[in-house]
Amino acid sequence: PIQVIVKADLNDLIREAGFATTATGTLIPIPDLIDMAADAQPWLAVFKDATAVPLYFGRGKRLATREQRLVSFARPDGEVCSTPDCDLSAAHVEMHHAQLDWGLGGLTDITDLAPACPKHNRMVGDQPGQYTTRMVREGPDEGRCTWQLNAEPGAPPNPERVNRRPDIPRRFAEHLEQVRTEIHGPDEASGDQSRLQLRQIIDLRNASDAEATLASIMLAAAYPRA
User: Cβ distance 204 to 212 under 8 Å?
Assistant: First the structure.
């Protein structure tokens, strides 16, 4: 049977607006996803708490199971390779033993696995120019994988990095909400007065082409047409 693997935000499902992301990186409008789900057998991924799905295999299996790959994709950053700036979609990644390599005694547990494209998965090692990885255990990046490029002998260590590409839509939405609040004000009952204020404070007479284009995009987002 055909399987469609899709990730959606709960708030978008409640609002019936926005987009969901498939394992191949395709965007699906939420209303279309809801229609598709009417005749589907769904899987539910729940984090932090245990479920009946066997996610922990220890040393029993080297390769991740289908259930583990589904849970990995459902993570906030799971739709692409975990290497910083890599955008290869989840449908084409391998499950990397990020905390400790399998050959060194690593475990095939979901908390120790991270998505990695074949290229970057084979660049992990202890030599200069290779990567050292680990799973973040606490803080705002808990559950994500850090990648650190090994430095040459005698050189200062390179910083650990996390792939921030999956955060772009959320950060843009937060920024857009902030801009709307600055334009309209938190207590505006109507948008008419805010639009007048907007015309008064934005002066594009000396703006560059790039600035004018950015202003046009932000205005279109802040004032969507009915």
Answer: yes
